[in-house]
Specification:
- With 336 residues, this protein is of the alpha+beta class.
- It has one domain.
- It has 7 helices and 12 strands.
- The strands form 2 sheets. Strands 3, 4, 5, 6, 10, 11 and 12 form a 7-stranded antiparallel β-sheet that branches. Strands 1-2-9-8-7 form a 5-stranded antiparallel β-sheet, with no helix packed on it.
- Helix 5 crosses helix 6.
- It is globular, with a radius of gyration of 19 Å.
- This is DUF4331 domain-containing protein.
- It comes from Mycolicibacterium sphagni.
- It holds the Pfam family DUF4331.
Length: 336
């Protein structure tokens, strides 16, 4: 759930966990490196997603930061513990629309809330949606110690003294999440040579479509935003990111790592932090920041980035219940 908390208040969009995007992954299928896996996780309660929302995975394959391909996921009203989902694939101009346009590649397929995943296939596409074990690992109490969140401070002044902030406890070890996973031939993504991927959640409300959350780089939205800016950030689009958000990111990095403006801009450019899209060159092994696999320690990576390498690693290990086959995230943990 690296995208789960945004700003100091740590609340979900509109106070609704169903609208909360948690993590975005992109990697080669382990059994067939000519296929790419895209996973968008939402709702840390791992129950049904919002029937009035549009969940989306969008891909830019030519570097103009505009959507060339978009997969939209629209869920039914849940009834008696069951829910279905329609999956649309839009290309070209239709991919730029926030509406679920294009070809319907899955029609009212079953979501899974039990132990096993409902895996669906249509042509070259493999798809599953439903409750899964969350692969994201982090020491939340350690992060609170590091930034003194309980004292009302923001993510700007890490406590990097002689005492480690880490507790050694994985706060997410038995957490579940609602996962949307799709696998397809890499050639269909048109990487030239790489692609940029981002997720969005939009809600139909009072005749309008509100863009309430977005996901790209893991933990970027979480650490770089404030309570005052997170709504605007979540509603914005990647093509505007550099112009709108660079100054805010540079300012934060000056506080967290003592970066000069020049140093911060250089690091943002090196990583490609802005625009906030996940980069993936499928000709190279996936490991963040080239795509993201389920074993990547993205919190240690982000804290090293923010503190200019001064934050010690948490020492946590990846979860051991991830799968080598589709849908890759493990079976959900029993309700406690």
């Amino acid at each position: 759930m690296s995208n789960h908390f945004t700003g100091l208040s740590l609340g979900p969009p509109l106070g609704d966990q169903r609208l909360d995007l948690c993590d975005l992954y992109a990697f080669q299928a382990p059994a067939d490196p000519t296929r790419t896996v895209l996973i968008l996780n939402a709702n840390p309660n791992a129950d049904a997603l919002h029937p009035d929302a549009i969940y989306r995975l969008a891909v830019d394959n030519n570097g103009d930061l505009l959507n060339d391909i978009a997969f939209s996921f629209v869920f039914s009203e849940p009834v008696d513990g069951r829910q279905t989902v329609d999956v649309f694939k839009a290309v070209g101009d239709e991919a730029e629309s926030p509406l679920p346009l294009g070809e319907k590649i899955f029609d009212a397929v079953e979501v899974s809330f039990g132990t096993g995943a409902n895996v669906h296939r249509s042509g070259e596409y493999t798809f599953a949606a439903g409750a899964r074990s969350d692969a994201f690992f982090f020491d939340f109490d350690g992060i609170k110690n590091l930034f003194d969140i309980t004292g009302g401070r923001n993510f700007t002044a890490p406590h990097l003294g002689s005492t480690s902030p880490w507790t050694g406890v994985d706060s997410n070890l038995t957490a579940n999440v609602f996962s949307i996973a799709i696998e397809l031939p890499t050639t269909e993504l048109g990487a030239n040579p790489d692609i940029r991927i981002w997720g969005r959640c939009s809600l139909k409300q009072d005749g309008e479509l509100l863009h309430v959350d977005r996901a790209g780089h893991p933990s970027v939205s979480s650490f770089f935003n404030t309570d005052d800016t997170k709504l605007e950030y979540n509603a914005s689009v990647p093509v505007n990111d550099k112009a709108r958000w660079t100054a805010q990111f540079v300012h934060l990095m000056g506080h967290t790592g003592g970066y000069t403006e020049k140093e911060a801009v250089a690091e943002i450019e090196r990583e490609g932090t802005l625009p906030d899209m996940l980069h993936f060159d499928p000709s190279k092994p996936a490991k963040y920041p080239n795509g993201r696999v389920t074993t990547d320690d993205v919190i240690d990576y982000r804290l090293a980035f923010l503190t200019k390498g001064d934050c010690p690693p948490s020492g946590l290990a990846p979860h051991t219940d991830t799968l080598s086959e589709f849908p890759y995230l493990g079976n959900p943990h029993p309700a406690s």
